[in-house]
Design goal:
heterodimer, A: alpha/beta, Rossmann fold, 4-stranded parallel beta sheet, B: alpha/beta, FAD/NAD(P)-binding domain, 5-stranded parallel beta sheet, 19 helices, about 30% helix
């Protein structure tokens, strides 16, 4: 991906599940766009919609939630909770004329190095194609 | 707000600085007003640097530190301890991952990697500016443990804990101990009888005064938290005999206090649905555990429905690997169990023909020898696929199994057999949900209990003080179950060995001014950590500090934004986002050649004496090893060995080969 065209992506990952997967991508020297930044949290169900909005209003082109899904060690309803957060965020985004496509969620596990790379590439393409 | 911050940016040898201009970043942040110390260091984690950091913190009265190095998973606690040793609250330290999430994945774009690293460090500085000093929560530990489940895993864990001097309460819902192993005959590899194994463990339990065993007992209620769980159990009535059969026997309830809980509740066998491969429809179709019991009871000849058994078809993966069903996982023990049974069948009853209808044979590890033995004894293996499952039917009293064998070009084969054995997998205990509700430990989609991390924290749960072991975590064999239960026992032992334990202060907290108690936070909390309380004349939510896991699930659902998790506050997260989007003007990195030339002169003083001698011996533009050895009066072997190291560090470099192609010419690099 040409860095000039690489959209700026904020990834919310989780300390125990997706963060090790993202670290593993680095460990394996897999290359993804340097415009991808990661904030690590205990659980993807703890992301506040206002953080997502703040990121999009501060210069990020998209927010990617690396959700714990069924592997979450805190709640079996984690995917459900995280999905609600995405929906709430999209409502806030619509009110500010921000495309709901700018937030995306997918489950990532602790060894998901390659899926993470693919998600970043695909999300980057989606963001590049958005016209507002 | 922190005003005296120290920033340390690690080269990590060259793992970071080969791609990120670490030296430039160190200089750049040093110019900022509230940054008192900004350094680039070769190895931040090195003892010498840790000592320097402590000196810096104390001499400059730093109130926050940022270390930009590797993943926090490696050195978070290293630098938290540095902060503690320097007298700084460890929560005022932030680690920034510029290796796994910057220099390594962006090694192809060093310029962009440097810009990204600047943003990451800026975010770390912003975060530490808003970080708060938090003290760990000290919890007193009661020196006793509840072990739930007296199968081999629970029994073995209880014995180990008792051997370490702890009081153990062992509860078993059945009236006998031993679980599934107690109903098993010979086990692989030792050939021991399962009942003997259980009996041996039971005798050990009886001989220990600090184990109290309750059979017919179930967990009824749990309150409290790490170090002080109040447990109530219900013990079912027993000893009914002719004399007291008319007496009204009631459940007995008991309570005790324990410091920790170890769950080893095991598994259930998958029970086939009515009609699944003819189960319940034909009496000759039974499950593998039922078949093992039949073999165990039979003597001389194996009989089924008053007829001698001459052939048996084993159908594998019943209740496991269901693409469209509930159990998507492989039960991993059933292939081994079926092959082992087949060997026992021949050993005990002679020439009974065995057909194995499998999807994939997974006799992993040492069990492979059983599979080889089974093949050698003439067992027939036929491979089917899930899309074309075997069909079980009957013609009169004759059972027929029809299978499309993928090993013989999908040839359809019909086998008349006397019995069909369904090789059933493992499922979570029927009461796992009830236990999960009592202890608040999470269960997965497969209904087995979830550990924090299958590799890094394999027996810990998110509930502090509650550990899991054995096959309640997922399918595993006896040996693996005992290993996992003993790991959990070791964790419990570590916990109970202390009088008090420090608990991470990263938990939720309520803003009482903003809270209006709507109850939404309590609704989503699986741990009942949030309760309604009266405060300042109004009803608000309060957090039970000992129970809260700090997951933060309660925070986004609060309509008043009255909940934050320590270390993950709005200010911290939003200021990090601001840090990422800061624009940096970073000059191009200088040519390494210029730096190397300068470094070679400055670092010459630190070279070992032998290197100096070798360099002195390199009198020509190009030198072979014998020439250097002669000039420096050193042996060729020693010169060869050191040149390799000096080449690695870029001090010398091999040039072309000599005319006879015997030796490389070496020259001093960039000199």
């Amino acid at each position: 991906m040409d860095n000039k065209l690489s959209p700026k992506i904020l990834v919310f990952s989780t300390e125990k599940i997706s963060d090790p997967g993202i670290d593993q991508a680095g460990l394996k020297k897999m290359h993804y766009a340097p415009s991808v930044y990661v904030i690590s949290l205990p659980c993807s169900s703890g992301i506040k919609p206002r953080w997502i909005l703040h990121a999009l209003e501060s210069g990020f082109d998209g927010v990617f939630i690396a959700a714990d899904g069924h592997e979450c060690s805190y709640s079996s309803r984690c995917a459900e909770h995280t999905n609600t957060i995405v929906e709430s965020s999209q409502e806030l985004m619509k009110a500010k004329n921000i495309s709901p496509k700018r937030v995306r969620m997918a489950a990532l596990c602790s060894v998901c190095a390659e899926p993470f790379m693919n998600h970043m590439e695909n999300f980057g393409k989606i963001l590049s194609a958005i016209e507002e | 707000m922190k005003k005296r911050i120290g920033v340390y940016i690690c080269h990590c040898g060259g793992n970071i600085s080969d791609y990120v201009d670490v030296a430039e970043l160190g200089k750049m942040f040093h110019k900022e007003e509230n940054i008192v110390v900004s350094k680039d260091v070769m190895f931040a984690c090195a003892d010498s640097n840790q000592k320097d950091m402590i000196a810096d913190i104390q001499a400059n009265q730093l109130d926050g530190i940022v270390v930009a190095s590797c993943s926090p998973k490696l050195h978070l606690h290293t630098f938290r301890n540095v902060a503690i040793r320097a007298g700084l609250n460890p929560m005022n330290y932030v680690q920034v991952n510029v290796r796994e999430q910057c220099s390594w994945p962006h090694s192809d774009k060093p310029r962009e990697a440097t810009v990204k690293a600047a943003g990451l460090i800026r975010a770390g500085i912003n975060r530490v500016i808003h970080s708060e000093s938090l003290d760990n929560i000290e919890v007193e530990i009661k020196k006793s443990v509840l072990v739930i489940g007296a199968g081999v895993s629970g029994m073995k864990a209880a014995i180990e804990l008792a051997n370490n001097g702890h009081e153990v309460f062992l509860i078993e819902k059945e009236f006998s101990v031993g679980g599934h192993v107690g109903q098993t005959g010979k086990v692989f590899m030792t050939g021991q009888d399962g009942r003997q194994i259980v009996d041996k463990l039971y005798q050990q339990i009886k001989s220990r005064n600090n184990i109290t065993l309750f059979t017919g007992a179930v967990l009824e209620k749990v309150s409290g938290s790490l170090g002080n769980f109040q447990v109530e159990i219900k013990v079912k009535p027993r000893h009914l005999n002719a004399a007291n059969v008319n007496q009204v026997k009631v459940d007995e309830r008991m309570t005790f206090i324990v410091g920790s809980v170890l769950v080893a509740t095991g598994f259930d066998h998958y029970q086939p649905k009515a009609g699944e491969y003819g189960y319940g429809q034909f009496p000759q179709v039974i499950t593998l555990p039922e078949f093992n019991q039949l073999m165990d009871k039979s003597k001389g000849e194996l009989m089924c429905q008053d007829k001698p058994v001459g052939s048996v078809a084993f159908i594998y993966c019943v209740g496991s690997r269901q693409t469209k069903g509930e159990n998507k996982y492989c039960s991993r023990t059933c292939c081994n169990a079926a092959v082992h049974t087949s060997l026992q069948l021949k050993e005990k009853f002679g020439n009974i023909r065995a057909y194995h209808l499998f999807r994939d044979i997974r006799t992993y590890g040492k069990h492979e020898v059983m599979y080889e033995a089974s093949c050698r004894q003439g067992d027939v293996y036929l491979k089917y696929e899930e899309k074309e499952m075997p069909l079980v039917s009957a013609e009169g009293k004759q059972l027929l199994v029809k299978v499309k064998d993928y090993l013989t070009a999908k040839k359809e084969i019909e086998i008349p057999v006397d019995m069909v054995v369904l090789v059933t997998g493992m499922v979570a205990r029927e009461d796992s949900t009830r236990i999960s509700e009592h202890l608040k430990i999470p269960i997965g989609n497969d209904k087995f209990f979830n550990e924090i991390h299958p590799k890094l924290k394999p027996v810990e749960t998110v509930i502090k003080g509650v550990y899991i072991g054995g096959s309640c975590q997922g399918p595993r064999n006896i040996s693996e179950s005992v290993q996992s239960a003993l790991s959990a026992a070791a964790k419990v032992n570590t916990l109970l060995s202390k009088d008090t334990i420090s608990v991470d202060p990263v938990i939720a907290r309520i803003n009482p001014d903003a809270c209006i108690w709507c109850g939404k936070c309590a609704d989503v909390c699986d741990y009942t950590a949030l309760k309604e309380v009266e405060a300042g004349g109004k009803r608000i939510a309060a957090v039970n500090k000992a129970v809260c896991t700090g997951c933060g699930i309660c925070a986004p659902v609060c309509p008043e934004n009255a909940i934050e998790v320590a270390q993950f506050t709005d200010k911290e997260i939003e200021s990090m986002i601001d840090g990422f989007t800061t624009q940096f003007d970073i000059p191009e990195r200088q040519q390494e050649a210029e730096e190397s030339e300068q470094d070679a002169v400055t670092q010459m003083k630190e070279y070992p004496q032998v290197w100096k001698e070798i360099l002195a011996g390199m009198t020509n533009e190009q030198n072979t090893i014998p020439q250097i050895a002669e000039n420096s009066k050193l042996s060729k072997e020693l010169v060869t060995w050191h040149l390799m190291t000096m080449n690695k560090y870029g001090i010398v470099q091999p040039a072309r080969m000599d005319e006879k192609e015997l030796y490389f010419y070496y020259k001093v690099k960039n000199h």
